[in-house]
Write a structure and sequence with these properties.
Blueprint (H helix, E strand, L loop, with lengths): L2 H13 L7 H27 L3 H4 L2 H14 L5
Helix pairs in contact: 1-2, 2-4
Length: about 80
């Protein structure tokens, strides 16, 4: 996922005139959630690819999973 493009799109949404509330707010919230979700997925991928779960008995994996679910829930996916 290209987070730079998402950030640029967020900036464009915020700058649009006239404001189209509540759509603008929803779009910004969605972009923020997508970036957070992508960052969490990348962190999960690194954690499992490097097999760090072997060092901490999946402790960080459990935390990352909860973070993933917390971010995903408002998106209703």
């Amino acid at each position: 996922m290209n987070f730079i493009i998402l950030f640029i799109n967020k900036t464009r949404v915020v700058a649009l005139t006239p404001a189209l509330q509540p759509i603008d707010g929803v779009a910004v919230s969605y972009i923020d959630a997508a970036v957070a979700l992508g960052n969490t997925i990348n962190e999960m991928d690194k954690y499992y690819t490097q097999e760090n779960y072997k060092d901490d008995a999946f402790a960080k994996g459990k935390t990352l999973h909860q973070t993933f679910l917390k971010i995903l829930k408002p998106l209703n996916l």
